[in-house]
Specification:
- The protein is built from five helices and five strands, in the order βββαβαβααα.
- The chain is globular.
- The protein has a five-stranded mixed sheet with strand order 3-2-1-4-5.
- It has a single domain, classed as Ribonuclease H-like superfamily/Ribonuclease H (Nucleotidyltransferase, domain 5, 2-Layer Sandwich).
- The chain starts with 5 loop residues before the first strand and ends with a helix.
- By secondary structure, it is an alpha/beta fold.
Length: about 170
């Protein structure tokens, strides 16, 4: 069933590189719009790197005008310091679309992988191959961009439930 086209931005947060991918969803049909990276210089102080990420994501949102955003949930690794910094980058990835008035959803990494490949523990190359299959016009140069597109696809597949919950909370 075809309906209204919804533009979705998927964001794969990282402190040095944040991948983003924009897709249009029309029922079960998906179309690639754009993808890229927001980068922050590694030699800058943390606060300025976070500002770069926020402003970069906000600029992408202003350019492509998505209605909804999806972000990967943080996974906790052995290095608490790295996890904390990733969480701060993720905060910028959540804040930018929220400030733009978008509906924002979060998904765990295993659900994202399963939504795209059918397996919750898929490898990067499997994700990239499926992105090429699901979005044949997609042109991405990094795993971060492919991951962001996978996040957007995951949201397109699960958005009905998430949007209803988000709309109820926002009101």
């Amino acid at each position: 069933m075809r309906g209204t086209v919804i533009r979705i931005i998927g964001i794969d947060p990282g402190l040095r590189r944040t991948g983003w991918g924009v897709v249009d969803s029309d029922g079960s049909r998906l179309s690639y719009v754009a993808s890229g990276l927001v980068t922050a210089p590694a030699d800058c102080e943390l606060a300025y790197r976070l500002r770069e990420l926020f402003e970069g994501i906000a600029s992408v949102i202003a350019s492509f005008k998505p209605q909804e955003a999806a972000i990967e949930e943080t996974f906790v690794n052995d290095n608490a310091r790295s996890t904390l910094k990733l969480g701060q980058a993720r905060g910028m990835a959540l804040l930018a679309p929220a400030m733009g008035g978008l509906i924002v959803a979060e998904y765990p990494p295993n659900l994202i992988k399963k939504s795209v490949t059918g397996a919750g523990h898929a490898e990067k190359r499997q994700i990239q191959a499926m992105i090429g299959y699901l979005l044949p016009k997609a042109r991405f140069e990094s795993a971060d961009e492919a991951d962001a597109l996978a996040i957007a696809i995951c949201h397109a597949n699960h958005r009905q439930t998430r949007v209803k919950v988000a709309m109820a909370i926002r009101q």
